[in-house]
Amino acid sequence: MLSCIRPGDCIWDVGANVGFYSELFALAVGPSGKVVSFEPSPACVAALEGRLRDRSAGASWAVVPMALSNADGDAWLSLGDGDTAPSNHLANGDDMSAVPVKTARGDSLLAQGYGPPAVIKIDVEGFEGEVLDGMSSVLADPSLRAVCVEVHFSQLDGRGKPNEPTRIAELLQAREFSLKWVDRSHFIARR
């Protein structure tokens, strides 16, 4: 992912968890760049904000406490594996470990004045398609050079979406991105 980033870029870290990658991105974009960390888990947001407070000056870094999706509104986040587990995911309200969270379309945030990203990282535990479906304008923006995605095949299968990885690839290819799988569950789409 770091090879996609240039000094001064705006990076959207979708599913930032506790900010490990966000912090690396902030170093890579330098003082003229910006990182926007999207994370719905309250405990992860607290960890992100702590990481932000503890770091030295550099890139602008914003923590946005919500999940990106294909709709603006409310949802439930399953915390079944722990408050800051990287496997937390959107769920239904029947999950006893779920907490209410806000959702937004990337396009809505772009319309509200969030800077268009040059690179997007998506790690959302089986909701990759919903995130991309909410980003038609973002994906069309010519300043977007790369989309880095972790595809969660087992979660997609469990949700009854075994063909979602193919649909995601076709969606990005229709926007003139070339995909390269870097391992069995990660790809980088570049244009």
Give helix and strand order, one letter per element, not per position: EHEHEEEEEHEHHEHHEE
CATH architecture: 3-Layer(aba) Sandwich
Name of the CATH superfamily: Vaccinia Virus protein VP39
Helix count, DSSP H or I runs of 4 or more residues: 7
Spatial separation of the terminal alpha carbons: 14 Å
- Percent of residues in helical segments? 25-40%
* Rounded mean pLDDT score: 93
CATH class categorisation: Alpha Beta
Shape: globular
The largest sheet has its strands arranged as: 3-2-1-8-9-11-10
Low-pLDDT windows of residues: none
> How many DSSP E strands?
11
Strand content: 25-35%
Number of domains: 1
Rounded to an integer, what's the Rg over CA atoms?
Answer: 16 Å
What does this structure look like?
- The chain contains 7 helices and 11 strands.
- The chain has 191 residues and is an alpha/beta fold.
- The chain has one domain (2-70, 107-190): Vaccinia Virus protein VP39 (Rossmann fold, 3-Layer(aba) Sandwich), CATH 3.40.50.150.
- A 7-stranded mixed β-sheet has the order 3-2-1-8-9-11-10, with helices on both faces. The chain has a 4-stranded mixed β-sheet with strand order 4-7-5-6.
- Strand 2, helix 2 and strand 3 (60-64) form a beta-alpha-beta unit.
- The mean pLDDT is 93.
